[in-house]
Amino acid sequence: RELGITDEHEGLMILDDSMEIGTNIRDALNLDDNIIEFKLTPNRADCLSVYGVGREVQALTGAKLKKLDFSPVAVTLDETMPVVVEAPDLCGRFAGRIIRGVNAKADTPDYIKQRIIAAGMRPVSALVDISNYVMLELGRPTHVFDIKNIDLSKGLTVRWARPGEKLKLLTEDEIELDSDSGVICHDDVPESLAGVMGGDATAVDLETADIYMEAAFWFPDAIAGLTRKYKLSSEAAYRYERGVDFLNVVEHIEYMSRLILEVCGGQAAPVLDQVINLPERKAVKMRLARCNKVLGVEVSAEEVKQIFTDLEFDFEVNEENEFTVNAPSYRFDIEIEEDLIEEVARVYGFERIPAREPVVQASIFPFPEKQRSAHAFRHMMAAMDYQEVVNYSFVDENWERNYQNNENPIRLLNPIFAQYAVMRTSLIGGLLKNIAHNAKYRQNRVRVFELGRVFFDDPDVKASEKTVKGIHQPMHFAAASWGLAYPEQWGEKSRQVDFFDLKNDLENLLGSQAQDLRFVAEEHPALHPGRSATIYYQDQKLGVIGELHPQWLAGLDLTTAPVVFEIDITPLIDHDLVVYKEISKQPVVIRDLAIWAASDISYQQIVDTLDGVSEEGILKDITLFDVWKDQQSDQKERSLALRFVLQDAKATLEDAQVEQLMSKILNTLVEKLGVRLR
User: Fold this and answer.
1) What CATH number has the domain bearing residue 486?
2) Counting beta carbons within 10 angstroms of the beta carbon of residue 58, is it exposed (0 to 12), middle (13 to 18) or buried (19 or more)?
3) What is the pTM of this model?
4) Is the domain of 259 the same as that of 288?
5) Per residue in 577-602, pLDDT tens?
6) Distance between CA atoms of 652 and 114, rounded to whole angstroms?
7) What CA–CA distance (Å, rounded) separates 514 from 537?
8) Of 338, 307, 305, 311, residue with least CA distance to 327
9) How many CB atoms lie within 10 A of CB 307?
10) Which structural domain range is residue 341 located in?
11) How many Cα atoms within 13 Å fall on the side-chain side of residue 22?
C-alpha cells in the first residue's frame, strides 16, 4: 500500500513465477503505464469506455480495433429467473442470467486490478471488480445480485417506484423514493434503484455462491437527475443518463460471464433477454454541398464515404451526393444534419481547414424613418448616466407572485436552480436584485436599465421562426434608480431620488413621443399605492412607474425605496416624423390661476380636461407650480396653482383674448371637475 500498488499492507507480495530475477519492479508490474484523461462533452457517452475511445482512434488514425470475444459461454444449467417489465418508458431492454457455484473469494487478476486502479476505482472483490472492469472497457454498466434471498419463482419486477417506498443502497444510505424513480423489485419490494445503484439486501459479498447478473437499457430521461436528487455518486447513472448501447446487451453479458467463469468458476444458465421498447433511430440526411459550405473547404464524396465507413456508420449516397446515414446504436448524438457535418470535420481534421476571413455579401437595408430601433433606447439611457444590465429570463417564483400578482407563471421543466423556476413577466424583479447587490457593496447611487423580453401564456400565438406556440414574448424596457438623485457635489444639497426624477428621465427617453404620455394613478402590487402610476401612450397602456412598495423593502435590505419604470416598447417603435414649425416671434403671455380642487383630482386630469380648450392653439403650456393643503383640517380639498403660457404665432395677444381664454379655462374646470376659484 505504501508503494501505491495495492491496498494490501500485510505480509509479502507474491509475484508471478514467470518473472525473472533482476527485472525492474516497475517493468514487472507495468507501473510506468501512461494514463490519459479525457474530458468529454455530455453528448459523447459512447467514449465513456476504453473500447469507445478505441473506435475513435480507429476512425482518426486508421489503426485496426481489436475485436473482443463475445461468443456465448457454455450453458450447463437449465434455469432462468422471470422478469416482468411494467414500465416500458423506463426500461427498453432487460437481460440477465444465473451463475451458480462461484467462488467470490477468488483473487481478482492483477491486470484487472491495475486497470481499474488506473481508472480511479478501488478493487473490492472479484465479482465487483469484474463488473466495474466491463463497464470501463465496454461502457456497459451491469449489476450482480446475490440470489440467496431471492425466490426465483417470484422473479423480478421493473417498475416506477411508489411515493414513500424506501430502499437501503449499497452505500448503506436509506432513501425515500418517489414516482419519478425506477426500481427493480422482488416480491414487490425494491431491491435496486434502476440504472443508478443496487440495494444492500442483494449485494454480493465474499460468501456469495449464486448470482444473477443483469444488464439493461434504461432510457436516459428516466435516469437523468436521480443522482442529484438522492445525493449519490454513480458511474452507472453517469453513463445511463447520457445513453448506453441498446443492441449489444447480450454480447456484453456473455463477455462478462466468461470473465466470471474464468476467475470465480461456476456454472452458467441461459441468458433471458427481453426487448420491450427500443429507441427508434431515424435516418439522418447530409448534403455534401451543405457540408462543404459549412466547413468552408471542399471535402470530396469519397472522403466522406471513407469517414463514415471508419466511424462504422451505415449509409447510402445518391447521385446528388446526398448521404442518408443510420448511426450506430451507441451514438445518441447523431440527430440532425449538422451532427454529421461535425463528424466529417472531426475526422477530416480541423487543422486541415484553412483559416480564412469570412466572405459575405454586404447588404445595407435602409431603416424606415418612421421606425425607431429598440437599441436606440439603450444608447439614450446610457447617455443619462444609467448602467445596462442583462438578467436571466427565468426568475424566482416569489418575484412573480409578489411583484406581479402572478400565481400561474410559465414554469421551467428542468430549472438549473430552484430560484430560477419560472419565466419572467416583468423586468422589475431583476433590476431590484441588481440594486440590492450593489447596495450591499456600499454603493450610494445605483441607476440601471434593461432591454429584454418577457413571457406570457397566450393560446393565440402560433409557432413560427420567431415565436413559440402559445407564448407571447413582448420586448420590454425597464429602468430603476436608487440612492442619491445625483452625485455628491458642493453646489447642490444631496437628496434621494424620487418619482419625478425617474418620470423626467422617461420623458427625456421618449423625446417628442412623451407629449402623448398620460400618467394615471393606479395601484400595482410592486409599487407604492400613493407614489405610482400607470403609463398610457395614445390611450394604450404602456407600462408602470413608481416607488417600490414599502412591504418589499425589508426583503431587499434597503433603507430607502428604489424608483422604477417598465414599458412595452412595441407601440413606441413606430412614430410620426418630426414636423418643423416656425418659432413665433410674438411675445408670450403668462397667467396664473389658483383653484380649490378635490384631493383625488390629479394634475393629469386637469391637463386632459383642458386638451383642445384653445381652438386657436394659443395655449402652449400648463405648469403646476404650487400645491397646498391644510394638514390640520379635515377638508377634502387642496389648493393647486397653475401657470399658463399663451402665445400666438402671428400676432400679439390682446388683453381681451387672454381674459376670454382664461375665463373659458376656469369654466371648463368648474363644469367638468367641480373646482372653484381660490
Assistant:
1) 3.30.930.10
2) middle
3) 0.58
4) no
5) 777 888 888 999 999 999 999 988 88
6) 105
7) 8
8) 311
9) 21
10) 284-352
11) 0
